């Protein structure tokens, strides 16, 4: 049987809220790490701050547009990695990345230019084959190359292709060709020559130390020297002259900083190193640039591959180029060059016409995910050097957190005392609703930390404290409207549905304004202000759930109980007496009107 118009079944609403609360905390305790602890921001748990200094080929300061584009790409990389509560800001010609918690190592890799190009391998030479050659022996590089070609042909042969079975699309690195994603420093890889351009670049590219010690004029001179080093490296390592290429093979130091990182000419050949520093390559001009990559994802080991790989999907132009190239170059090697380092150089076993391929190497889950995430969002428009990486202490934040908790506790106590003194039983219902609202907010906060990487920081704490006032304001609107109805002469029980119908519109309007303000602030703000806006908007939405499913049903239940609806307990005694006088006055007026209008005339 349906309840009378305006009446509700409180038990159903309360059961719905209990189901929601149980569902939230079931997810909290039985999913993820099962710890009911929210993620904390850098100001509450500490973290890492990395400063990246932009460098340009001509030594001039980067443009604001390129810095903003780089900031957006790095921000996307941070979000793709699930690094929560991070900030990427522009500071002059630097980008400052702030990452909370233990994600500092990931933050240090976020400045990778990630310029991926595909180039055909012209020649590959093990570093060990070049160690016995001297720079003055012009004919020996060729012999070293013969040795390198022998190694390469072995990879392209049957045994090499057998090692390449890990690729599911016909393009894979053999066991010998795969490379680590992290270069290792091995002293035996040093080139014998001492006066090559790249060694000069080694001393010059250590600008992370020298730039911090020199004044502005000396920095300008270093920038000119950097431009000269880039041009010098291009003339040697990107020459089309085979003799110059062989000389570049001998003089290239795989351990030194690469001045061509982010500055190589895609239209010219390139002499470079493998990512593990154990092989040197002569590569043809760029076949497919990284801009033709539409998507990238990592893939775990499977039946046909024994290691993690990074799968790439090309756009239409890259898809056609890749299909034509692989069909015409079966048995040849193609190099995946990331920031001028060969990550993988597999042999082509078959024509690949599907527009997809994969990069194999000595990847684990973390390195494969990082590379896929980096490639997915594109290359940075600038090359960056990591100038500083410092650990941020949470000491100040913890002290601020204690102050915020103290302020929030004092605010809750003041609200509770006011409600108890002014509303009595209704004040007790207000306190119960606030406690249940806090339980819902906390559970949702923990889940958001797991699912979307939301972190609680000091501005977020401020948002929650302000939300206490918004939630209490909703209760007060309802209770004051209830008193107005009783003051007009209605009973407590009959006043509840009428007052709720009118207060509901006011509550919805007020919360809608608060939510819109929080949404606009979230869209326009940057940094930690977003956390304040997010928590304020989330608390506003959860406030509606508590008011509709808890506060209103509890008041309705109290109005139907003779014990709970007693004036001395509800604090509505004075208002009810005013209502009784109003009813008595209306009855007296009605009797007078009836007497004047309905008195029968005597015969």
Automatic annotation (TrEMBL):
<dbReference type="GO" id="GO:0015450">
    <property type="term" value="F:protein-transporting ATPase activity"/>
</dbReference>
<dbReference type="Pfam" id="PF02355">
    <property type="entry name" value="SecD_SecF_C"/>
</dbReference>
<feature type="transmembrane region" description="Helical">
    <location>
        <begin position="532"/>
        <end position="557"/>
    </location>
</feature>
<keyword id="KW-0813">Transport</keyword>
<dbReference type="GO" id="GO:0043952">
    <property type="term" value="P:protein transport by the Sec complex"/>
</dbReference>
<feature type="transmembrane region" description="Helical">
    <location>
        <begin position="396"/>
        <end position="421"/>
    </location>
</feature>
<dbReference type="InterPro" id="IPR022646">
    <property type="entry name" value="SecD/SecF_CS"/>
</dbReference>
<comment type="similarity">
    <text>Belongs to the SecD/SecF family. SecD subfamily.</text>
</comment>
<feature type="region of interest" description="Disordered">
    <location>
        <begin position="130"/>
        <end position="224"/>
    </location>
</feature>
<protein>
    <recommendedName>
        <fullName>Protein translocase subunit SecD</fullName>
    </recommendedName>
</protein>
<dbReference type="InterPro" id="IPR055344">
    <property type="entry name" value="SecD_SecF_C_bact"/>
</dbReference>
<feature type="compositionally biased region" description="Low complexity">
    <location>
        <begin position="148"/>
        <end position="180"/>
    </location>
</feature>
<comment type="function">
    <text>Part of the Sec protein translocase complex. Interacts with the SecYEG preprotein conducting channel. SecDF uses the proton motive force (PMF) to complete protein translocation after the ATP-dependent function of SecA.</text>
</comment>
<feature type="compositionally biased region" description="Low complexity">
    <location>
        <begin position="199"/>
        <end position="223"/>
    </location>
</feature>
<feature type="transmembrane region" description="Helical">
    <location>
        <begin position="507"/>
        <end position="526"/>
    </location>
</feature>
<feature type="compositionally biased region" description="Polar residues">
    <location>
        <begin position="590"/>
        <end position="603"/>
    </location>
</feature>
<keyword id="KW-1003">Cell membrane</keyword>
<keyword id="KW-0812">Transmembrane</keyword>
<dbReference type="Pfam" id="PF07549">
    <property type="entry name" value="Sec_GG"/>
</dbReference>
<feature type="region of interest" description="Disordered">
    <location>
        <begin position="579"/>
        <end position="603"/>
    </location>
</feature>
<dbReference type="InterPro" id="IPR054384">
    <property type="entry name" value="SecDF_P1_head"/>
</dbReference>
<keyword id="KW-1133">Transmembrane helix</keyword>
<dbReference type="Pfam" id="PF22599">
    <property type="entry name" value="SecDF_P1_head"/>
</dbReference>
<feature type="transmembrane region" description="Helical">
    <location>
        <begin position="428"/>
        <end position="452"/>
    </location>
</feature>
<feature type="transmembrane region" description="Helical">
    <location>
        <begin position="458"/>
        <end position="479"/>
    </location>
</feature>
<dbReference type="InterPro" id="IPR048631">
    <property type="entry name" value="SecD_1st"/>
</dbReference>
<feature type="domain" description="Protein export membrane protein SecD/SecF C-terminal">
    <location>
        <begin position="385"/>
        <end position="557"/>
    </location>
</feature>
<dbReference type="GO" id="GO:0065002">
    <property type="term" value="P:intracellular protein transmembrane transport"/>
</dbReference>
<feature type="domain" description="SecDF P1 head subdomain">
    <location>
        <begin position="276"/>
        <end position="381"/>
    </location>
</feature>
<feature type="transmembrane region" description="Helical">
    <location>
        <begin position="12"/>
        <end position="30"/>
    </location>
</feature>
<comment type="subunit">
    <text>Forms a complex with SecF. Part of the essential Sec protein translocation apparatus which comprises SecA, SecYEG and auxiliary proteins SecDF. Other proteins may also be involved.</text>
</comment>
<keyword id="KW-0472">Membrane</keyword>
<dbReference type="Pfam" id="PF21760">
    <property type="entry name" value="SecD_1st"/>
</dbReference>
<keyword id="KW-0653">Protein transport</keyword>
<feature type="domain" description="Protein translocase subunit SecDF P1">
    <location>
        <begin position="67"/>
        <end position="122"/>
    </location>
</feature>
<dbReference type="GO" id="GO:0006605">
    <property type="term" value="P:protein targeting"/>
</dbReference>
<dbReference type="InterPro" id="IPR048634">
    <property type="entry name" value="SecD_SecF_C"/>
</dbReference>
<dbReference type="InterPro" id="IPR005791">
    <property type="entry name" value="SecD"/>
</dbReference>
<dbReference type="InterPro" id="IPR022813">
    <property type="entry name" value="SecD/SecF_arch_bac"/>
</dbReference>
<dbReference type="GO" id="GO:0005886">
    <property type="term" value="C:plasma membrane"/>
</dbReference>
<feature type="compositionally biased region" description="Polar residues">
    <location>
        <begin position="181"/>
        <end position="193"/>
    </location>
</feature>
<keyword id="KW-0811">Translocation</keyword>
């Amino acid at each position: 049987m349906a309840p009378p118009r305006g009446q509700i079944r409180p038990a159903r609403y309360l059961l719905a809220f209990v189901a929601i609360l149980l569902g939230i905390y079931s997810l909290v305790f039985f999913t993820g790490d099962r710890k009911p602890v929210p993620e904390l921001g850098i100001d509450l748990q500490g973290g890492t701050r990395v400063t990246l200094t932009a460098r340009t080929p001509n030594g001039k300061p980067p443009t604001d547009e390129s810095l903003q584009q780089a900031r957006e790409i790095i921000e996307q990389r941070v979000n793709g990695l699930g690094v929560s509560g991070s900030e990427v800001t522009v500071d002059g010609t630097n980008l400052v990345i702030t990452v909370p918690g233990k994600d500092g190592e990931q933050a240090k890799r976020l400045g990778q230019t990630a310029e991926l190009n595909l180039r055909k391998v012209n020649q590959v030479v093990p570093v060990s084959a070049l160690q016995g050659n001297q720079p003055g022996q012009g004919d020996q590089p060729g012999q070293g190359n013969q040795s390198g070609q022998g190694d390469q042909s072995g990879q392209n042969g049957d045994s090499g292709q057998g090692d390449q079975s890990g690729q599911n699309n016909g393009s894979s690195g053999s066991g010998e060709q795969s490379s680590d994603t992290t270069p290792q420093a091995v002293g035996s890889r040093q080139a014998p020559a001492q006066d090559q351009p790249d060694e000069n670049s080694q001393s010059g590219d250590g600008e992370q130390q020298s730039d911090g010690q020199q004044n502005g004029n000396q920095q300008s001179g270093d920038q000119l020297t950097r431009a000269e080093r880039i041009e010098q490296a291009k003339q040697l390592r990107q020459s089309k002259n085979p003799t110059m290429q062989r000389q570049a093979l001998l003089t290239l130091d795989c351990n030194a900083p690469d001045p061509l990182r982010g500055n190589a000419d895609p239209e010219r050949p390139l002499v470079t190193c493998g990512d593990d520093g154990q092989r040197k390559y002569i590569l043809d001009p760029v076949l497919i640039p990284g801009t033709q990559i539409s998507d990238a994802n990592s893939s775990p080991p499977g039946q046909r591959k024994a290691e993690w790989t990074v799968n790439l999907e090309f756009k239409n132009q890259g898809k056609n180029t890749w299909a034509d190239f692989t069909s015409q170059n079966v048995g040849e090697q193609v190099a995946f060059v990331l920031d001028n380092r060969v990550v993988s150089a597999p042999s082509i076993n078959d024509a690949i016409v599907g527009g997809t391929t994969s990069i194999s190497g000595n990847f684990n889950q973390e390195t494969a995910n990082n590379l896929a995430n980096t490639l997915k969002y594109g290359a940075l428009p600038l090359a960056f050097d990591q100038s500083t990486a410092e650990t941020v202490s949470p000491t100040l934040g913890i002290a601020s957190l204690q102050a915020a908790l103290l302020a929030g506790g004092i605010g809750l106590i003041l609200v509770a005392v006011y409600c108890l003194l002014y509303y009595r039983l209704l004040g007790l219902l207000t306190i119960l609703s606030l406690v249940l609202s806090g339980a819902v907010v906390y559970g949702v906060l923990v889940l958001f930390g797991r699912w979307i990487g939301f972190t609680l920081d000091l501005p977020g704490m401020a948002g929650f404290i302000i939300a206490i006032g918004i939630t209490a304001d909703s209760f007060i609107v309802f209770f004051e409207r209830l008193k107005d109805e009783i003051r007009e002469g209605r009973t407590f029980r009959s006043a509840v549905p009428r007052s709720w119908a009118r207060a509901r519109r006011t509550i919805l309007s007020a919360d809608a304004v608060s939510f819109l303000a929080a949404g606009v602030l979230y869209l326009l703000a940057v940094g930690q202000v977003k956390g304040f806006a997010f928590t304020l908007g989330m608390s506003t939405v959860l406030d509606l759930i508590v008011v509709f499913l808890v506060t209103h049903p509890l008041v309705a239940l109290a109005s139907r109980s003779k014990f709970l609806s007693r004036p001395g307990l509800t604090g509505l005694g004075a208002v009810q007496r005013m209502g009784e006088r109003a009813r008595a006055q209306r009855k007296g007026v009605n009797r007078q009107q009836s007497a004047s209008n309905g008195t029968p005339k005597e015969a």
